[in-house]
Amino acid sequence: MVSSMKLSFTLIFACSLFLQTTLAEVICETLPTNLCSFAIASSGKRCVLENYQNDDGKLKYTCKTSEVVVSTMVGRIETDQCVSACGVDRSFVGISSDAFLAPQFAASICSPACHRNCPNIVDLYFNLAAGEGVYLPALCEKQKSRPHRAMMELLSSGGAAPGPVAEISSDLVADAPAPVLF
């Protein structure tokens, strides 16, 4: 009887540890820097990687809570598979729409592996694209059929430094929500 009680207590203890880890609260300031980017705190606010100089003058990194709320995906830390599939990098400080200017980025963010399986990253870049006046689903459609043309239209949308004036395809510009600042 004592043996079965010990087994029961051990089992209950093990289950409680499992529950604590699965229901653990995600707090940006407690995340290691290699998990910070593309994480959403339990409060629903995005985590952002920031850098600072320590007392020795060395560059250090820390994870902070931003003011950007994502109410549909609270307490989420993006998987390494999604980071890879979407062509993003957790080590970048801050997040910028400049990523769209990299030749392979649009192909990665629009890939089925990213677009269908990584709603956190897609939501983030959807909002960044909208802030530049670009509707991400339309850009992805163009990317499938004419990738170079899609990049030219993105560049001419005002999302990059001024260059030659080009006509913007009306299906790339959307009545997008207000830009999300990080």
Please describe what this structure looks like.
The chain is globular. The longest helix is centred in the N-terminal third of the chain and has 21 residues, at 2-22. It folds into two domains: 24-77, no CATH class; 79-182, no CATH class. The strands form two sheets. Strands 1-4 form a two-stranded antiparallel sheet. It has a two-stranded antiparallel ribbon with strand order 2-3. The protein has eight helices and four strands. Helix content is 42%, strand content 13%. It has helices at residues 2-22, 33-36, 80-85, 105-109, 112-115, 119-131, 136-145, 147-159, and strands at residues 39-40, 45-53, 59-69, 76-77. A hairpin with a 5-residue loop joins strand 2 and strand 3 (59-69). With 182 residues, it is an alpha+beta fold. Helix 7 (136-145) packs antiparallel against helix 8.
* Quaternary: single chain
User: What's the number of extended β-strand segments?
Assistant: 4
Strand order of the largest sheet: 1-4
Taking Cα atoms only, what radius of gyration do you get, to the nearest Å? Answer: 21 Å
The span between the termini is: 59 Å
Sequence of secondary-structure elements: HHEEEEHHHHHH
Number of alpha- plus pi-helical segments:
8
Q: What best-fitting shape do the alpha-carbon axes yield?
A: globular
- In the predicted model, the low-confidence regions spanning at least 5 consecutive residues are 5-22, 159-182
* Overall average pLDDT: 76
Main beta-sheet strand count, sense and barrel state: 2 strands, antiparallel
Query: Percent helix among the residues?
Result: 40-55%
Number of domains: 2
Which band does the percent of strand residues land in? 5-15%
